[in-house]
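Possible regression after last week's pipeline update?

I re-ran a chain I had predicted before the update to compare outputs. Posting the input and the new output here so someone can diff against the archived version. Not blocking, just want to make sure nothing changed silently.
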Amino acid sequence: MYHDVGAHGPWVPSRRAFGRAVAAGASFAALAAVAACSPQDAPGPGSRTAVPTDASTATASGSPSATSTQTGQAGTAGSTAPGTTLPGNSPAAAAPGPKYSLTDPASQWVVVNKHRPLSPADYAPADLTQPAVRLAATGEAALLNSTTAAAAERMFADAAAAGVVLTLASGYRSYATQTATYDGYVNSRGRDEADTASARPGYSEHQTGWSFDVGDGDGVCSFQPCFADEPAAVWAKANAYRFGFVVRYPWMLQTVTGYYYEPWHLRYIGIEAAGDMHSRGIATLEEYFGLEPAPAYL
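New output (post-update):
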């Protein structure tokens, strides 16, 4: 996810400019034209690409059970009735059973969005590790939790065998990093503008270690709308589910996820659940787990 930006990275569209283009019905190619609207955040020392600061340890994978009963572990706040339809026209899945928690940051099914902050807010994974993949980031941004790292290694190797080069462009982001980036935006642009460019601290999938941003081997269109047409993004969209990943922020579903299309942002939920979402045509975690849309902060 790259909805946190800074002062020294390549230029990309702000969410506000991107949203205006979407609302106007622009083609995806045309959206690339807004790429000069706001800078991304500064890379860490020695980074080859900008290191973003965004809006997110069981090893088994799973899919929601057919029951509509949630346990206290899974959390019920904001759930919709099973079988309802959320914006985006994908049928919501039955509310999941107790297999994995939707609220525990250490759970591969944790759902983090603008209505669902991490608890504790300053959570840090206990098993951060650097995967043996091609890196386009350094420091904490080159880390993932151990389950996600292992899945990423398998996925990157499979892509390479198919002639596609993937890079890990940004992984883990600590609460402290997010705080510094977000506060910088608030101080320079105000809170409303900050919320269009940077996730609030504690509201980031990257903080969980379950997600990362993927890049292309040549770095073309990194963190820009045009990345969707690059080999890495095309391959990931078609194949990531086989390794337990989903594209977390799909095209034209910002009214559900709270973020515009990010073809680079992958989220691990396990092979079974990712495959289930793929086969059933369900695009977002909110829809899959029967949770309310989260287009804006409460």
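Follow-up from reviewer: compared with the archived run. The chain has nine helices and eight strands. Marking as no regression found.
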